[in-house]
């Protein structure tokens, strides 16, 4: 990195597109009415976007899911980046909280400042748009797009991509929802068939990161699921096969504490019973990208043998040659809402049903099998 910074490179110009007040005043923002789309950057020629900064003011407290960021390279019609804006920059569930990593950050105050340092090359134009799918206006949308103008960028330079996916997973094992063999013996999973898929890529490139948002409706540890990578059409078990979700995110032994490393960490953890609630994990492969020449299928189990119902959302980040495989249609706004929160009342109701199943004996404690 230092060699890159210190190298003198004539012919490269540093430019910025921002929301500054063109009159010279202090109204340094744009507005995006409800239901409308704004192009915040339209750049001709060749170059590399080096940094993006955004902050938003709106009556809509769920704008991080209701606003969608898209990016297009080289005149393409299908976006190479498409995600709810909060999820893309490292905030799940439409929430505000601080997030720190090397390529992405949600900075103070209270995570309201979005930053990206992913380099985003283009050879023949770039466009970044924001769609406000909210019923409320974005009254103030502030932004910087810092980029370099180059004389040319070769087609061999991979184009940046990011894709948001979300699934409320079902339980597939015959013994029902379980983990650690609590309910009964757990089976084997020699396939990716029922896994949660976070990347399904066609082309040549390298995978460089993931934000992983899990909402767990029960107290059981959610992270026995293995990550599985099938490169260039290979069969299971593939070239890379993990040993558990926390292992994939470079931690160990069922963590439930915030931790921020430039490449991996836990930006948000719950403070409920066990691992019940919302956890945000992240992992960036900046020193160890996962390379592929024809395709990449990346997935993870939701509990060992896909044994848990979880609300999983992810943003995957990678570079690849164009053209790319178009993304599935982004779920509509009303399909991107959070699942209802499981709280102490629900847990008490579960306990009540358990007591009834035990004949309502007066001295039942809770450990009786």
How would you sum up this structure, described in words?
With 369 residues, this protein is mainly beta. The chain has two domains: 10-150, Protein of unknown function DUF2961 (Jelly Rolls, Sandwich), CATH 2.60.120.1390; 159-180 and 196-321, Jelly Rolls, CATH 2.60.120.1390. 9% of the residues lie in helices and 38% in strands. It has five helices and 23 strands. It has helices spanning 2-6, 63-66, 85-89, 245-248, 344-357; strands at 13-18, 30-32, 37-43, 46-57, 67-73, 81-84, 99-100, 104-107, 113-116, 120-122, 126-132, 138-150, 159-168, 196-202, 205-216, 227-231, 240-241, 259-260, 264-268, 277-284, 290-292, 295-300, 311-320. Strands 3, 5, 6, 11, 13, 15, 18, 19, 20, 21 and 23 form an eleven-stranded mixed β-sheet that branches. Strand 5 and strand 6 (81-84) form a beta hairpin. The longest helix has 14 residues, at 344-357. The radius of gyration is 22 Å and the shape is globular.
Task: Kindly report how far apart the N and C termini lie.
Answer: 58 Å
Total DSSP E strands = 23
Remind me, CATH topology of the largest domain? Jelly Rolls
What's the mean pLDDT score? 95
> Proportion of β residues?
35-45%
Protein name: DUF2961 domain-containing protein
Organism: Paenibacillus montanisoli
Pfam family, one: DUF2961
What's the short version?
Helices cover 9% and strands 38% of the residues.
Topology of helices and strands:
Elements lengths: L1 H5 L6 E6 L11 E3 L4 E7 L2 E12 L5 H4 E7 L7 E4 H5 L9 E2 L3 E4 L5 E4 L3 E3 L3 E7 L5 E13 L8 E10 L27 E7 L2 E12 L10 E5 L8 E2 L3 H4 L10 E2 L3 E5 L8 E8 L5 E3 L2 E6 L10 E10 L23 H14 L12
Parallel strand pairs: 6-13
Antiparallel strand pairs: 1-12, 2-12, 3-11, 4-9, 4-10, 4-12, 5-6, 5-11, 7-8, 8-9, 13-23, 14-22, 15-20, 15-21, 15-23, 16-17, 16-22, 18-19, 19-20
